[in-house]
Structures are given as structure tokens and as C-alpha cells.
Automatic annotation (TrEMBL), chain A:
One of its GO terms (biological process) is transmembrane transport. The lineage of its organism: Bacteria, Bacillati, Actinomycetota, Actinomycetes, Propionibacteriales. One of its GO terms (cellular component) is plasma membrane. SUPFAM superfamilies: MetI-like. It is a multi-pass membrane protein. The keyword ATP-binding does not apply. Residues 102-316 form the ABC transmembrane type-1 domain. Pfam families: BPD_transp_1. Its main location: membrane. This is Sugar ABC transporter permease. InterPro entries: ABC_transporter_permease, MetI-like, MetI-like_sf. Signal peptide: none annotated.
UniProtKB/TrEMBL annotation, chain B:
It is found in: Cell membrane. It is a multi-pass membrane protein. Pfam families: BPD_transp_1 (PF00528). The keyword Cell membrane applies. Keywords: Cell membrane, Membrane, Transmembrane, Transmembrane helix, Transport. InterPro entries: BP-dep_ABC_trans_perm, MetI-like, MetI-like_sf. One of its GO terms (biological process) is transmembrane transport. Belongs to the binding-protein-dependent transport system permease family. Its main location: membrane. This is Carbohydrate ABC transporter permease. The chain crosses the membrane at residues 12-30, 68-92, 104-131, 143-163, 200-222, 242-265.
Amino acid sequence: MSVATEQVPAEAVPGVRAAKKRGPDHRPGLSRKLPYLLLAPAVLLELLIHIIPMLVGIWMSFVKLTKFFIANWSAAPWAGLNNYRVAVDIHNSVGEGLLKSFGVTVAFSLITVILSWCLGMAAAVALQPPFKGRSAIRTLFLVPYALPAYAGILTWNFMLQRDTGAVNHVLVDNLGLMSDRPFWLLGGNALTSLITVALWRLWPFAFLTLMAGLQSIPRDVYEAASVDGAGSVRQWRNITLPSLRPVNLVLVLVLFLWTFSDFNTPYVLFGTAQPPAGDLITFHIYNASFLTWNFGSGAAMSVLLLIFLMIVTGAYLIVTGRRSRRA
Amino acid sequence: MRETRGFKVYRAVVLAVLGLFVLVPLYVMVTSSLKPLRDVQGAFTWWPSNLTLDPFVDMWKTVPLARYFVNSTIVSVVATVCSVAIAILAAFAVSRFRFRGRTVFTTTVLSTQMFPGVLFLLPLFLIFVNINNSTGLQLVGTRLGLIITYLTFSLPFSIWMLAGYFDSIPRDLDEAALVDGCGPMGALVRVVLPAARPGVIAVAIYSFMTAWGEVLFASVMTTESNRTLSVGLRQYSTQTNIYWNQIMAAALIVSIPVVIGFLLAQRHFVAGVTAGAVK
């Protein structure tokens, strides 16, 4: 396209330009600025709420931002890598605590993602062929996801109470599986409780996504397979699973990022006193920052968490050979 | 898939197990909200022996729930409206224009999705305090601060999802509108938006749910006057008593707006989320 054509006023030949360029950008002067104008509000807000705070957070991780400097935080003394040194030194209590909570979070995240995927897949396959009541059941399954996080988690908090909760009532009184009433929100059972609650809230999302994935697989593939004598298990393994690969890649990554940075579940379930067995990392950072009022150290832990998530995401995208859709 | 007998058994088992898993907490929530306080303080019972509506009456007095409700509604509705409007503009730009910085924008915005909130909670708090000191604009402890914060939470996903929706609308349609004399914005409002209505509805529900259910920022950025439901509900636990029946009643009441909205627009939401996630 020559420079001369570029300069012809668009109004002169609107139809021709529109047809050539495919798209509404038929007025060069305006269209060059227009996308930036359209993006401006989003960019401004992203800068204010996400990007700038993150840069400030990175800066914070290099200063000695204790309670004495909160009121006048820009004057906090430089700490260099000290905050990081403390955070990764597993021989002191801060580093040890961070490492333990990292371990808890990895376990929590992996188990929750795997179970969410399994439940979601089981339900999506079960609801694939139409039957009476299918849409009602599908709607019911989505309710935990639609419920506000704290409403669902508070209900679980009540159910997991030692003496008055429904869980112990079922396990001890109804089924007689245990003689003692275990604590679910204290001690070693805390991780089990966390996983159960997170699973309850999260599996519907896996179900939703997988269901949509299943619907995009052409029906006749299954018919052909069943003419060839493949049973349902083989059809699932040889048709369903491979066809869902792109869906699964996105789903697993999203589930992982969500569970790894889950804050609501531990916060609403345990209050501010988290049991060590359920000490998830975002909650740990929150507590470490606000209990000791050492925000520099909290910021250093946050940056480490961010680096970890970026490395995992990057590695995952490279291994699976899929970049984000628009990148 | 053929419906063999094995499949029917499988289906029955899966639906029964998952149905129970989903339903039991909902059942506990509803029935416990109908019990008097001494019943929720004693051993759990499946059947409420003394049905009462008192928790639904008392919960407004124990805690200033009405005020929290108003706060949550204002914050969520305003954040949703702004977020959807901003996402529409940005998604239109991403979907219909090729411009320098497009990839940088989409990648950056999408990657902010994966950052844990705790990461920018404190810096944001400090920035808000600084803004207050330098301009007098009060953001901490006001609804405005929460609104601004919340409207960015759903923004990346909304832009991504809407851009996907807009992409699926044939460009011939807006080209025709341009030939007929619309400007690009006219084409957006008259052609693209109506065709993408399900996507817009889905994004709106998503934004509302995000704001209505947010816990972390609400717990740090609010004071008594602008407190939202997510923080307010914790106040039913006092030193001496935990009003579980009222907590369950309040949890039920605050869930109703989102669940109804979600169920009404479920089709659009499911289509929207999956169009974003599956493509």
C-alpha cells in the first residue's frame, strides 16, 4: 500500500477503505489514536492497582520497613538483600516457617488440583449424554462456585466444629468410624479440611470447563469408535482425553495458580491463628507482615512467591508448547 | 457415547456422590439458619427440632448487617458497571485494531491475573495513604478505594473473554455499519455490542461475583463505616458466643443475590467462561 493512498481522506472513499483494510479503522488519523484511547482507562487502572504497587512491593523488599517506618515509609533505610537472606535462611525461624508453609502449599495445591480435575471430569462425562434432569443437576453442581467465598467457607467452618459440627456427627455418631471426636480446624487435620473446602468450591469450575470441552468433540467420532467395538473406557482414553488436551492445559494451569495463591479459604476457615498444618503461603505472608509488622520481610517473601509462580508458569507453557492465546 | 448399563451405573454413582458433596453444606446452611441458638450450640442434628425464623430477624441487630449490605451493594454494582464499560472499550481495541503495543498490553494484563493479591495489598495500601496525604483524596476506609480496587480484579479476565467474543463476531458486520456511515464507536455500540450481549452479561456477573465475595482487601481497606459483608459476617463471633444460626442465616441471605443472578444468566455465563477458557 503506497504512502499516497494512506493520506487520501478516508471520507472520500469510505467503502473502498473499509473493504480493503477489514475493520473499522478507516480513518487513519483517528484510528491510530483510537485504540490507545480505548485502552487508556484499563491501562491507567492496571497501572494504579497492579503494576505500580508491584514495583513498590519490589522496592519494599529491599528496605527495612518495620513498624517504625510505616508512617513515613519512603524514608525507610535500605536493607539490600537482607530481607531475602532472612527469608531463605532455613536455619532461622522466618526462613524455616516460609519453607514449611511452602511445602504445605505445594501439597495443598497439587492435591486440590488433581481432585478437582477428577471430580470435574467424572461429572462432565456423566452429564454428557442428555437425560431427564440433566440441566437441573448441572445447575446444582455450579452453586458452590457461585456462592460468595466467605458464605461457603463459613458453612464449612461450622460443619468442621469439633463438638457441634456436622462432620464429626456423621463420622462419629452416624457411621461410628471414630471413637474420639477429632479437631478439624486445629492440629494435623487442618490440611485435610483446607483441601476439602477448597475442593468443594473449585471442582465446579473444572466441571464447567471440561463440560464445554466435551461438547466441542464431534459426536460421530464416538459413533465410529463404537462401531469399531471400542468400549466407553477405551473411547474415553483414546478420544476424549486427547481431544481435551488444549482445554486441560489451560484448566490445570489456572487451577494451580488459583490454589497456590488461595487466601480466602485459610483466612475464613481458621481466622488469624492458622494451624501449622494448614499454613498456606499467602496467608503465611499476610501473617508474617501484619503480626511482626515487618513489611520489608513480607515483601521479600511475596517477591519470592511471584518469581516461583512465574518460573512454574513459564516452564509449564514451554513444556506444553502453548503460549497464552493472544501473546 | 452409548448408554450402556455400565454407564448408567457409573452415572448414578457419580451423581449421587457429587450431589451429596454439594448439597450437604447447603442443607446445613439452610437448616441451621432455622434453629434457635441453643440448638446450634449443642450436638449437631440433621432435623431441626425447633423451627424458628428468629435468626433471620436477630441477625440484623446483632451486627449492623443492613449497613454492610448497602456497602457491598454499592461497591459491587459500581465496580461492575465501571469494569464492564472499561473492559468493553479495551476488548474492542484488542479485537478490532492492530496497533503497536497490543501484544505487550494483552500479555501484561493477563499476567496480572496470576499475581496473588497479598503481593500488592500492602504497597497498594501505602500508595492510597500517600495519595490521601498529597491530594486529600480519601481512599482507605472509603467505598471509593474498594471500588477502584475491585474493578481491576475482574478486568483482565473480562477483557480476555470479551475480546474472544468480539473476535467471533464477523467483521463484515461492522464493516457494513461503517459503510452506512457509523464511526468505529457507532459500530461498537450498534453492531458489536448487541451481538456480544451474552458475553457482556457473563462478564458483568463475573465482576459482580468477584467484588461481592472479596475478602482480603475488604479486611484491610475497610473501617466500620464502609465495611462490606465479607468482613461484617465475622462479627457474629463474639468473645462469649458464636451465633452460628445467625451466621448461617446471614450467609444464606448474602448468597441469594449472586446465586439468583448466576442461575438466571447461567447459560450466558457458562458460554462466556468456556469461550474464554476453551478457545
